[in-house]
Structure to design on (194 residues):
């Protein structure tokens, strides 16, 4: 279990133990929202001197399609998107006073990135293949930062909207000592206050 999931899990347990409102706790625990084009999700967890961010987005927002790539242009679109996703500095603006440095980046693509795999598609990789006419898939990227002055980490400028203009709304769930919050960001309101 990743640290971020553990964080939500333990928060859930403590909510469950401390609150008679079981239903409310279950509702708050909802980690992943429905796959909706234009909508992405961020899970943000602060613990000790680490910041963990999980970014989950329909491939549609990232590359403009969700089927396996069929030609050179689509392969290139995926490669370039993954390259961008692996550079947290392009997607998140952290206050320099917090002195945060990325320590891990783990990207999962629902689409084939490499041409040599073209002949042997592994369709099980498509997380939400629904056997309907349309295929859906999500990019999932986990970022870990270590921050020397984490108490100075009071906001995150989310630059995902600019890098991936197909993104219209980002639902953020953040967890820190202050508790759990759910915030909706848009291109005009793209700063997450912590
Ligand atoms: Zn989709």
């Amino acid at each position: 279990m990743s640290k971020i999931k553990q964080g939500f899990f333990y928060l859930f347990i403590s909510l469950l133990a401390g609150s008679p409102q079981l239903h409310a706790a279950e509702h708050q625990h909802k980690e992943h929202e429905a796959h909706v084009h234009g909508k992405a999700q961020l899970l943000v967890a602060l613990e000790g001197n680490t910041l963990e961010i999980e970014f989950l987005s329909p491939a549609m927002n990232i590359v403009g399609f969700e089927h396996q790539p069929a030609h050179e242009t689509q392969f290139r679109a995926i490669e370039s998107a993954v390259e961008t996703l692996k550079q947290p500095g392009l997607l998140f603006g952290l206050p320099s006073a917090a002195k945060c440095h990325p320590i891990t980046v783990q990207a999962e693509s629902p689409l084939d990135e490499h041409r040599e795999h073209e002949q042997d598609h592994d369709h099980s990789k498509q997380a939400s293949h629904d056997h309907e006419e349309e295929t859906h898939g999500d990019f999932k990227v986990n970022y870990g930062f270590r921050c020397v002055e984490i108490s100075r980490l009071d906001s995150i400028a989310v630059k995902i909207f600019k890098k991936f203009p197909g993104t219209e709304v980002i639902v953020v769930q953040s967890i820190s000592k202050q508790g759990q919050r759910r915030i909706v960001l848009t291109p005009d309101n793209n700063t997450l206050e912590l």
Observations:
- The helical segments are 3-18, 22-29, 59-63, 72-85, 88-91, 160-163.
- Confidence is low (pLDDT under 50) at residues 12-29, 124-132.
- The first strand starts at residue 39 and ends at 47.
- The longest helix spans residues 3-18.
